[in-house]
Each structure stands twice: as structure tokens, then as C-alpha cells.
TrEMBL record:
Keywords: Membrane, Transmembrane, Transmembrane helix. It is found in: Membrane. It comes from the Eukaryota. This is Mal, T cell differentiation protein 2. Residues 32-177 form the MARVEL domain. The keyword Membrane applies. It is a multi-pass membrane protein. The chain crosses the membrane at residues 36-55, 67-92, 104-130, 150-173. GO terms for biological process: myelination. Its main location: membrane.
Length: 178
């Protein structure tokens, strides 16, 4: 017989005991900006900002292609800022996640998407000499000369941003596998 007020059920287990501690090899706070990974993430944000400003400053001749470029550029820019803030403000030490694996997966996926966005931006740029309407008597080009120059710059910065994401992927893989 159980004493009065006692339960036959065991107490619930402590849920905190089942979560592994976070695995972080990057420093928190401003120290992250002194590492190669932090510097490359900063470059990703900087070059990504330039890409979407350049793409947004042109008349969009092919909305499907350049819409995807804008989506990838703005989404990657926002997520990179969030990722950097997680380490800047020390949340990486409080959230029980394997941050090395998360870093690799995030930067690897973003590299693939950004390289695709670079290819689409370069394809849009290469079509500048085609007429806007094929059955028209006027010869208005898809991109005017000024927009063509902006589109070239956007392609170059999209490539540079994709290279930065590729470098971050390589650094993250190295940290994750060590």
C-alpha cells in the first residue's frame, strides 16, 4: 500500500539530460570576426548586399530568372546575418545544436543556390544584344548599355559571393570533420 498522496508513477525524467551539449569550435562575441570563417561570412554579407542592390537597380527583362536571383541573394543575405548574430551574441553556446554540422549544411546549400543564381544572372547578362520583342520593328535591346554594365557587375559580385560561400563550406567541413 502506498502512503497517502504518493503516486505509483515514477517522476518524469529531466528533459535537459537528453539533449547533447552544443558542439561549437567557433568563438563567440567579437572574436568570431577575427577568424577566417567570421571574415568570410562578413564578405558574404557585404558582397550579397551589393548583388541584390545591383540586380534591383536594373529594369528586369526576365522576371523569372532575375526574380530567383533576388530571392537567393536576399534570403542568403538575411540568413547569413542571422547566422553571424548567433555567434556574435553568444547564442551558439546556449542552443544545443551541432553548430559545426549546421555551419556546413547551411553554407553548402547556400553555395549551391548562389552558384545557380550566378549562372542565371550571367545568362541574363549574355542576352543583352537580343531585341526585346522579336516581332517588333524597333530594335530595343533587352538591356540598355547602362543596365548591361550593372548586370555585368551583378554577375561578378554574384560569383564572388558564391566563392565566399564555397570557402565557408570548405572551412566548415574541415571544422566538422576534425
Amino acid at each position: 500500500m502506498l502512503p497517502r498522496g504518493a503516486s505509483s508513477m515514477p517522476p518524469p525524467p529531466n528533459p535537459a539530460a537528453y539533449f547533447p551539449p552544443p558542439r561549437v569550435t567557433l568563438p563567440s562575441g567579437l572574436e568570431i570576426l577575427r577568424t577566417y570563417s567570421g571574415a568570410v561570412i562578413f564578405l558574404e554579407i557585404l558582397f550579397g548586399t551589393i548583388v541584390w542592390i545591383l540586380v534591383a537597380s536594373t529594369r528586369v527583362p526576365l522576371p523569372l530568372l532575375q526574380g530567383w536571383v533576388m530571392f537567393v541573394a536576399v534570403t542568403a543575405w538575411f540568413l547569413s546575418i542571422v547566422f553571424l548574430c548567433v555567434f556574435l551574441f553568444g547564442y551558439a553556446n546556449r542552443i544545443a545544436v551541432n553548430w559545426n554540422q549546421t555551419d556546413f549544411l547551411f553554407h553548402g546549400a547556400t553555395f549551391v543556390f548562389y552558384f545557380g543564381a550566378f549562372l542565371l544572372q550571367a545568362a541574363t547578362t549574355s542576352l543583352h544584344h537580343f531585341p526585346r520583342k522579336f516581332n517588333s520593328t524597333t530594335q530595343e535591346k533587352i538591356l540598355a548599355d547602362h543596365e548591361y554594365n550593372i548586370s555585368i557587375a551583378a554577375s561578378i559580385f554574384a560569383f564572388a559571393t558564391a566563392v565566399c560561400y564555397g570557402c565557408s563550406t570548405a572551412l566548415a567541413l574541415r571544422r566538422w570533420r576534425l
